[in-house]
Structure prediction request, 1113 residues.
Amino acid sequence: MSWPRQILPQQGPPLQDEVARRILEDASQQLQSGNPAKSLQTILSLLSALHLPEEAAAVAIKVQDAMAKDPSTDVNAQLASLLGSLTLSRSNPHSSSLPMPTLQTEFGGLDLLPGRERNSQQHTSLDIEMHQMDIHLEQQLLGDSRTPSTRDAAAIAVADGEASFMCDRMSLSFIEAHPAGFSDVSYIETVDGNVQLVTTGKDGKLVYRSGDKPSDILKTVETHGSGEEPSPLTCVAANPGGDRVSIADEQNFVKIFNFPQGELHTIATRFALPARCLAYSPSGLNLAASGDDDGIKLIDLAGNKVFRTLRSEPYTRGLAYDPESEYLAAAAADGTLTVWNMATGKAEITKKKACSKIDPMAAERVTPAWHPDGGSFLAAPASDGSINFYERLSWDSAGELTGQHNAAVHLLSFSKNGLYLASTAADQSLVIWDVVERKALEKKTLPGTACGIAWHPTSNALSIITDDGELAIWTNPIPATLPSPTADVDALTGVKKKSDSKDKMIDDQAMDSGSDGEADGRGHMSDDEYDREDSFLNDGDDNRTAMRRSRKYTGHSRGRKSGGTYYDAPAFSVMDLPQPQPPIQSGATSMDAGRRYLAYTSLGAITLRSEPDHNTVEVAFHDTARVRRRVPLLTDFFGFNLGSLGERGAFYASPASLDAPSTLVYRPFDAWAPNSEWSLGLPEGEEAECIAAGTTFAAVATNTRMLRLFTAAGLQSGVVSLPGAAVAMAARGGRLAVAWHAAPPTPLGDQCIMLGEYTVHDQRLLRQRSVSLSPGSTVAWMGYTEEGMLAIYDSEGMLRVLSPEFGGSWVPVFSAAAERRGGEHFWVFAVSIKRSEVQCIVCANTPEPAVPSGSARPVVTAAPIRVPVIAHDESQAPLEADLLRQGLLIAHSSAAANNANSAREVETDEEAAAFEAALQTAQMDADRSALRLFTRLVQTDRQARALEVAAALQTSAGLQGAVKIANHGRMSTLAEAVGDLLEQRAAAEEAAALAAAGGEVYGGMYASEEQQYAGNGTITGPIPVPSPAFALHPGGSAKKAAAAAEAEAEDAQAAAAAAKNVLVENGSPNGVSTAFTKLVGAGKASGSGADDGAKRKTAPAGNPFARKKATKK
Prediction:
């Protein structure tokens, strides 16, 4: 049986004395062997719970004060004094001969005095505690002979001074959410107000739970790929927009999942070591990530690219964006607190030992926290159990919270309105602080060290998860007598101090003029809440003024509804806008397991392997016959981070360090002279960002917007200032392409990038064009195709090539979105338009490939090039796409030949013949594609469209083939129309030959590529080809033009002019011929098998195949 609490005072003095004696005996043993302060606190809790006299509590406090001042205090004497006070007051249990101290501050808000009002949560906790003590007292008073080591749990708690722990554990209902290890928790609120709890743990699972009942699992997301072992998750962060959840794992990945679907959205980045910290910017546009690796990566979520890496030390254990997105606070495992300026990317302030120092290998984290009121101050957890505040901008100390934690503080989290602060420490304590009054409200002891805490965004609740994987939701941690942690108050802003006219002026400037009800800046704040705010601000007028002046933005702008009331509308600070993408090195990967590719191209690969005191760089070619001997390994003491593989050498660059500048190194493959390898350090403050190696040159773009050019032997051949920050570079032969930022990105996240292409040997600008990218994307790869066309692959998976067509435009030729399956990513490194292949490495659930161990090579996939045409006919669309692809080759080959001639790049007849042969090959390949499409159109009775295809045929042989196909399909009218095209082609060829013989090339070659780009965009070769407009009006006009050309063949100039007039006449909408009318009217008859013997006789005389058929007939 148990002793009811109500009858204990009625059992008489002997029982009361026995209770006190037993309690004091146990306490005496604990005081001599354990923590005296902790044991005395247990005594006070028990005495208060038993309603023993208040004098006992007062004496106990004196004992504690005496021991705090002098650790050598005679404990027995103090205990005797305590027992004496109990005996003297036996006759009057409620007498008070000593002053009654207030114990709330000293003992974390635990009310030890009878009759003081408690909230419902405290009543429940006290009742549970009393029940446990009743059991213990019953065992003692009935002569329980068991030793302390065999007592039940309640008795052990009393003997060990853990009664408060029993109370807390019972009041917080913990569940096993994940296995023991790194765990984390966060709330996510969707736009429709739905709130869920998300947790992560060592089991590699991302779990969506009910926001009010953590045991209700709504969805479990497996964050690893199929067939892969789950990787422990170390951190979780919810996007403020409520549609994304980010996680970090021990396989070094940072992944983003859709909410609530749970599908993998993207892999944001990867580190060389485990990632452990994540923080979203207030707008949700950027994500900060860090971990055991050095550096903090800032990720632009719109472009899914790392736009900046902050140069931090390794083992970052906490990140926090300030509410204005101007600063990022980072806490390291060694206790260093760094505040980074997001505008400059530099450290604003670095404070050693400002935060708690933890073991980097332990499942612990240290998180600073910004006050929600515009980040007016920063809270940092300290090793001595205190919480230090630092004022924004000046970074001076602005106070502290002390007296509750007996060990290093780990986690901090402000409530939504900033009135309250939750903190946890290594002693497994959890404290709720009143920030305004600067005192503790509640304190609990957890079953383990907290790994994550999070305030509920819409209700009075706090979630906690420990390193044991145990999860609980503390409901109503804030008493009902105080404002809710989600109350609609302006926190520390908008408060007007009545007696301070200077502050009044500042407040008036900080707020828009409002209605009468809000004229005092209090809005919906009650008088009590206003007084609390004002009392806090009165504590430090100077600090308050500095804080207010520092608030340029508050995260919300005030708008006005039609009714005149105010509403909160989201506003953005400068850093919330999309950031320019950082420079990239095409073909490079991140460090993974001590290995990375500095360059992976169609030629080969440069692989860097990390050693304990240096790096090893290896160059390997896909075709081993390219060089006569194996390229020796390079021992890298510079720390190369950039590499470029040229046709005749490899080019490297290293970042600047404290004791060495950014260094460039060039190593030729086959040197004809000694000392051909060279290295050069860049000037102080200048660092390489992009490099490229051509056949006879090497180029580097630096952070000072310099483009520096070097010959293969190291001679500096040029220095150019770029118009903007470099984005990417590519080289092929003697050409160099450079991309740079032309303007800041648009608010929608579109990058504004320009591209310049140069010929290095004669220092000539070939072209300058803006870069076309998918909406919100960034440049992921830039290079030359096998044929020499510039190509860019963006982060959305779209590949485009720069073509002379349409005045020099970007043509999309490949979409990874149409080819990928599941979480695949296509990592492009080479393109061949002629072979219709995109050489890439398909990566599963990762944006880039890992370097295989040993001599293994990654598996290369040849994805087909497909110009994105509209599939109005499933069988016809691929043929149309292939025809457009062939048109790209012809346009490029023609422009290359003309540009080479105008630039005097052709030095021998062999080189000129090579350009001509490439053009002729492209024309023949294009005709094959066009005839396949022509055949399909004839089969489907699409004669008008077939004639348009015939007009694009490049050779006379192709036109002859089209006539044959039309006749085979019994479409004599189409055959006649194509014959007209053939006649014109013959006349044009003859006129061109005569003009050439007379010393003038018909039509003239374009003097420069710029003139070529300024053309009408039709596919052109050395012989003029009828434009597609000709196909609209074939027939008689072409015959007349051909006859005129033949009649005037004696005069080459006249024949050339006549042929030129043919093209002009064919573009006239009034020149509808009889043959075209016959084609439209007799289409069905010719396709229905009618006798066409007479029609075949009318086949044009210029068609040998048609004459042969007519004679045979």
Remarks:
- Residues 902 and 1007 are 6 Å apart (CA to CA).
- The two ends are 123 Å apart (CA to CA).
- The chain has a mean pLDDT of 73.
